[in-house]
Amino acid sequence: MGKSSTKTYTGYYNIFRLRNWPSWKDPESDPLEPATPPGPGNPLGLFAAHYDENSLRYFHGTNKNYLLENEYRALSHGCVRNDNGNIDKMKRFIVTKMVTSTDMSWWVNSKKSMMYDFTEEEKQKFPVKIIYKTFDIGSDSYGDYIIFFNDVYNYADGSGWSKFDSEELMTFTTAENIRAEYRAEHKPNQFQLSDEKLIPIIENIISNHKDYEKYYFFDLVNYTQTETGN
User: Fold this and answer.
1) d(CA 55, CA 157)
2) Contact 74, 4 (CB under 8 A)
3) Buried residues in 132-157 as b, exposed as e (16+ CB within 10 A)
């Protein structure tokens, strides 16, 4: 995602342009400096899908996959980047399923530098929603977990928002927001935590956590019970 000086804005968008094996030019560079040619060494990777018509922001691949493993990843000029494997899946889906005005299936294996603009009808078929959250609740083979993220733009206090951001797409780390998302993600059953158990867990984990680390609710229940003797 974008660094603080070139933020990735929240909002509702639509894919409107595709670029296969794109060239790239640093927007902050000398205008006379040549662009990086298409290919594996290009910072945009092998494909780009533009979604914000008012700025140079799009989904694209990368030539530095190792950056995606960093804890801090607010490094781009505002674009959302991913590894080339995932971007290739996006490309295959778009050119074979979403583009209907012409046959673009041949793009799948092409290494030719090309650009395609969606028709108005096609734009509506690929909506994009960019959200900003400082926590997330999910599940894996070990159980239900919560993970916290650094508020990289310092949005939580309301001072860093831009005129381009949509407030309703921001969710911050508060006890009520966590409780609401937990309830939304877990239908009532014998495994859902009651508020009596959930609220103390939430209050404790908000005060005592590390960003980007998974905390499993099962472990948090046991820890809270040990601490309180209940």
Assistant:
1) 26
2) yes
3) bbbbebeeeeeebbbebeebbbebee
Structure-token match 């902050």, residue found: 28
How would residue 22 be classed by pLDDT, with cut points 50, 70 and 90?
very high
DSSP string, 135-153: EEEEEETTEEEEEE---TT
The predicted-structure confidence for 157-208, as pLDDT tens digits, reads as follows: 887 788 888 989 999 999 999 999 998 877 665 467 788 888 999 999 999 9
Residue with tokens 């206090």: 157
CA 201-206-212 angle, to 5 degrees, is 110
> What are the domain boundaries of the chain?
11-129, 132-228
Beginning with the edge strand found earlier in the chain, give each strand of the sheet holding 57-60 in spatial order.
80-81, 57-60, 47-52, 17-20, 114-117
107, 61, 64, 106: which is closest to 87 by C-alpha? 61
Distance of CA 145 to the CA centre of its chain: 18
In 3D, which of 68, 76, 78, 20 has the Cα closest to residue 46? Answer: 20
